[in-house]
Design brief:
The complex is a heterodimer of chains A (312) and B (54).
Chain A lengths: L1 H23 L17 H7 L6 E9 L4 E14 L7 E15 L3 E8 L4 E8 L4 E9 L7 E9 L3 E8 L3 E9 L4 E10 L4 E11 L3 E8 L3 E9 L4 E10 L4 E11 L3 E8 L3 E11 L2 E10 L4 E10 L2
Parallel strand pairs in A: 1-19
Antiparallel strand pairs in A: 1-2, 2-3, 3-4, 4-5, 5-6, 6-7, 7-8, 8-9, 9-10, 10-11, 11-12, 12-13, 13-14, 14-15, 15-16, 16-17, 17-18, 18-19
Chain B lengths: L1 H19 L1 H27 L6
Helix pairs in contact in B: 1-2
The chains are: A mainly beta (312), B mainly alpha (54).
Chain lengths: 312, 54
């Protein structure tokens, strides 16, 4: 019996040092491909920035065949107008939006048109296995308010690079590289000819199975840090800090994200005294009920919204 | 000894300028509150995050 008890520990002590050696030896020529530069804060954005709205929202999506679908969307509620003073100006609006989507593994087309005359269009296509094209445009009736942008993304073995062209002589480029299996660094430059502005920025991302930490600094004065902790398969906690040293504005927020079978609940609290929550409840197959609330105690601005989404 | 006294004087002058100036303190209090919320939430998430699991 004593010998039987002794045998298992002997085998584990010989395998453990071997495992540790494998973990320590990183193959720097086979690093994973990093996520795109613009999605570096992806986890934090998904948890902390749900699409909060005020009023009533109804979305209906009808699939005509496997690749093509139409969508109808009605919104009624106050829209905030940016104002110079601290008072928020809200104007009640109602609009209907008609949309068409074509989704193919190699090509995606989205078009939306609103009753106030605005048109949104997006194209995403794979030109080759590693090169893809993205384009989007927003056209309006008002002069000088329409804009469009085209970007070319190249995915390398352990890096990604993107080149963007926009109207108003807007040029941008970014590059992100995996440095270790968990760490990646990136940088971007942009030049806006119309406004005679240019800028440069750097970003870093460290992720493991349990957490993601990102940091971004830009010459426009932006410092953005975020941290997401994946507590379990269903629960994540996230925190972020945004500081703009040009406009002297700083905001930190802390939030939770519960993804359950029948619902998804996200809530957050801000350093500006703003508390928000967003609930998507699956009532039935293809039928979702949405509740949104945002309470800004500092400005005494309380927004509540409800909606229904029909279709996948 | 004199070097450390000089740097303590500079530190005092710095703290005075940041704390007693109304405008700067308005920004600094926001910055302290935001950084405190960010760092405190990271500390809580890393150490007590498992309590929030379902």
């Amino acid at each position: 019996m004593a010998t039987a008890l002794n045998v298992p520990p002997a085998t584990t002590t010989t395998t453990l040092p071997q495992m540790k050696k494998e973990e320590e030896k990183v193959d720097y020529l086979n690093l994973p491909c990093p996520i795109p530069y613009e999605e570096i804060h992806r986890e934090a954005l998904m948890s902390l920035k749900p699409e909060l709205f005020e009023g009533m929202r109804f979305d209906f999506t009808k699939g005509l065949n496997q690749k093509f679908s139409l969508s109808h969307s009605v919104f009624m509620g106050p829209m905030e107008i940016p104002s110079q003073s601290s008072e928020t100006i809200k104007i009640p609006t109602a609009h209907y939006e008609f949309g068409a989507n074509f989704i193919d593994p190699k090509l995606m087309l989205f078009g939306r048109i609103l009753t106030d005359g605005r048109l949104n269009a997006r194209v995403k296509g794979d030109l080759t296995e590693n090169l893809s094209l993205k384009a989007n445009a927003q056209l309006t009736n008002e002069p000088h308010m329409s804009h469009g942008m085209v970007s070319f993304d190249y995915k390398g073995k352990d890096y990604r690079t993107q080149f963007q062209l926009g109207n108003g002589a807007l040029f941008g480029a970014n590059y992100i590289q995996s440095v270790t299996p968990h760490l990646s660094f990136g940088g971007e430059v942009f030049w806006a000819g119309q406004h005679r502005k240019s800028g440069i920025g750097y970003a870093a991302r460290y992720n493991t199975d349990k957490m993601v930490a990102t940091g971004q600094v830009a010459s426009t004065g932006l410092v953005a840090l975020s941290y997401v902790q994946k507590v379990s398969e269903k629960v994540s906690l996230a925190s972020d800090l945004m500081y703009n040293y040009m406009s002297k504005d700083v905001t930190a927020s802390f939030g939770y994200d519960y993804i359950l079978r029948q619902c998804r609940l996200r809530g957050k609290i801000d350093s500006n005294g703003c508390v928000a929550a967003f609930l998507e409840e699956r009532l039935n197959m293809g039928l979702n009920f949405i509740l949104s609330s945002e309470l800004d105690h500092r400005k005494k601005d309380y927004k509540f919204g409800f909606g229904l989404t029909v279709g996948e | 000894m004199t070097d450390s006294v000089v740097s303590v004087e500079k530190l005092k002058a710095f703290v005075h300028s940041q704390y007693y100036d109304e405008e700067k303190w308005a920004l600094n209090s926001k910055l302290l509150r935001a950084v405190g919320l960010f760092a405190g939430s990271i500390f809580l998430m890393r150490n007590y995050g498992d309590l929030m699991a379902i």
